[in-house]
Design brief:
Blueprint (H helix, E strand, L loop, with lengths): L3 H13 L5 H9 L15 E10 L2 E10 L6 E5 L7 H12 L3 E5 L19 H9 L3 H16 L10 E6 L2 H11 L4 E7 L12 H5 L5 E7 H6 L3 H11 L4 E6 L15 H18 L2
Parallel strand pairs: 3-4, 3-5, 5-6, 6-7, 7-8
Antiparallel strand pairs: 1-2, 2-4
Helix pairs in contact: 5-6
């Protein structure tokens, strides 16, 4: 999960460079400003809708977007701790325009419908921690099965092709567990500045993912790597031993660099991660 230290670190850097004042920075984030993502080359027409997905624990409000014609591989998107919001809708739509049937979920549906972060990406992390901490391995696995099952019942999803899943920040380990929950369906897993991928517990997400047959893309933030410099090595060794294709790289972007409403959004690094995601899906979901 993101932590409040990232906010302070970013603000101090921007203030030192004379780019923004504390008041301006807070106002910008409070407005939930979303940068426009680059357009997709040869984008396909898409159909988008708000949907409700039944799970063992209730009804999850989600965003579903897919090519308007034909079928396409399904993709399950797990947002970061700020939850389902305009930025992730934009990211999901862009992925659908690239040829995928995309379900972006509200992981906190048990407590609150989206938006779950009252001030968007400017919401203080302490306000969000109870939501994230209430998600357990069990809830993540049961939700993953329900969401993948829902995707497979949609006429726009190609059942003869594997499903992909991707997660951001706290969504990274959930994406790993999604592959473990539905190993016969998930063919690709991507984690962007994921937190908690490696733990000392026997049910660590990276150990669960190593028991699947999925191909992996793991994009690590530079400052996360500074805090846990050995994590990338553990990931590389684990997936190499499991003989799973895994692209693991430390990006120069700071934690949270991918969502376009993030205070540390880094377009060049986000686009690099995006291109690697499309390359992963192009191979694993073909």
């Amino acid at each position: 999960m993101c932590d409040q230290d990232h906010f302070e670190e970013d603000l101090q850097e921007y203030e030192a460079r004379g780019l923004v004042t504390r008041r301006e920075f807070g106002a910008l984030l409070g407005a939930s400003v979303v940068m426009l993502l680059p357009q997709v080359a040869n984008a396909v027409a898409v159909t988008e809708s708000d949907v409700n997905v039944t799970t063992p624990d209730g009804t999850a409000d989600c965003y579903f977007v897919h090519p308007a014609n034909g079928t396409a591989p399904g993709v399950l998107v797990w947002p970061d701790g700020f939850g389902l919001r305009p930025a992730f809708r934009q990211m999901g739509k862009r992925l659908a325009e690239s040829g995928y049937s995309v379900l972006v979920v509200n992981p906190f549906y048990r407590v609150k419908k989206a938006p779950t972060a009252d001030a968007g990406s400017a919401t203080p992390i302490p306000q969000l921690l109870p939501l994230a901490q209430a998600l357990t391995e069990t809830t993540q696995m049961t939700d993953a099965k329900a969401f993948i099952g829902w995707l497979d019942r949609q006429s726009s999803v190609a059942r003869n092709r594997k499903v992909g899943t991707q997660g951001y920040c706290m969504g990274g380990p959930i994406a790993f567990r999604t592959a473990a929950a539905v190993p016969d369906r998930v063919g690709a897993v991507a984690s962007f500045h994921g937190g908690g991928l490696v733990t000392e517990m026997p049910n660590s997400p990276h150990l669960q993912a190593a028991k699947t047959k999925a191909q992996l893309l793991i994009a690590i933030a530079a400052n996360d790597d500074m805090r846990s410099p050995n994590e990338k090595n553990v990931l590389k060794e684990t997936f190499a031993k499991a003989k799973l294709p895994a692209e693991i790289e430390v990006y120069t972007g700071a934690h949270g660099w991918c969502p376009p409403d993030s205070q540390v959004y880094n377009e060049s690094q986000a686009e690099k991660a995006w291109s690697r995601l499309l390359a992963l899906y192009g191979k694993a979901l073909a």
